[in-house]
Design a protein that fits this description.
With 239 residues, the protein is an all-alpha fold. It is built from 9 helices and no strands. The model has no long low-confidence stretch (mean pLDDT 79).
Length: 239
């Protein structure tokens, strides 16, 4: 076992599993209170139907999100992103911007550390801004016209994801040129489920990038194989 695995990766996984488990337990405390205080106790059938409805709508994200965010976040960043939320619209842009600013190799240990520090910084900043907004937000929103608020609400998320597309598209422009028209066309399919488009975006981008990489058409070049060194034969010099 190398030093990185012993001193960082294993302790992070242990702490992450404990924190996630505690959050899952704590999230049920309101339900426990309602059951003890008011006797509200859903049956097993009701519980399964409620979970089934959620799984049909968001079940694909159980697999898609870890596959999508782990390469950018690493181990610690993934745990922290799940705990703090806002992974797509805050944590991912912060992590990627920091890694690009310092010109780190994606997926490297250095990139993981830089991304983690960026996520921590985004958590501190967003928590501080959220606190200020909770205190003064009602007054500030009261001064904004209703039509302006509606426009802001509908444009902020597309603007964030548009910036992410440009950021990642610069790294692999050929993949972006191929996958983007496919995703745009899928939006015109009647009654298509959103998770199908998401799975296509993630899996399709991975497969296309892999194909371009294998063919040598990718912007990311294959590492050159080191030439084997010739063994030096011992000289037969006589003393």
């Amino acid at each position: 076992m190398n030093n990185y695995e012993k001193t960082w990766r294993r302790p992070v996984i242990k702490a992450g599993v404990i924190c996630i488990a505690l959050v899952m337990i704590i999230s049920f405390l309101p339900n426990v209170y309602l059951m003890i205080r008011y006797g509200v106790k859903p049956t097993g059938g009701t519980f399964l139907r409620a979970w089934g409805a959620i799984a049909l709508a968001y079940g694909a994200f159980y697999v898609v999100e870890p596959l999508s965010y782990y390469p950018a976040f690493g181990v610690a960043g993934s745990y922290l992103g799940v705990l703090t939320g806002s992974m797509a619209n805050i944590r991912l842009p912060a992590s990627q911007t920091a890694q690009k600013a310092l010109d780190t190799e994606p997926g490297s240990k250095k990139a993981e550390m830089i991304g983690l520090l960026a996520i921590i910084g985004s958590v501190i900043v967003s928590t501080a801004m959220l606190t200020v907004f909770v205190i003064f937000g009602a007054y500030l929103l009261g001064q904004v016209p209703e039509d302006t608020k509606a426009q802001l609400a509908s444009l902020i998320v597309p603007a964030v994801f548009g910036a992410l597309v440009v950021m990642f598209g610069q790294d692999e422009p050929k993949t972006a040129i191929i996958i983007l028209p496919i995703l745009v066309a899928m939006n015109f399919i009647p009654n298509i489920q959103y998770w199908i488009i998401t799975v296509t975006a993630v899996v399709g981008s991975v497969l296309i990038s892999r194909f371009l990489y294998v063919k040598g058409w990718s912007k990311t070049k294959k590492p050159e194989k080191a030439e084997p060194k010739e063994e030096q034969k011992p000289s037969n010099t006589e003393d």
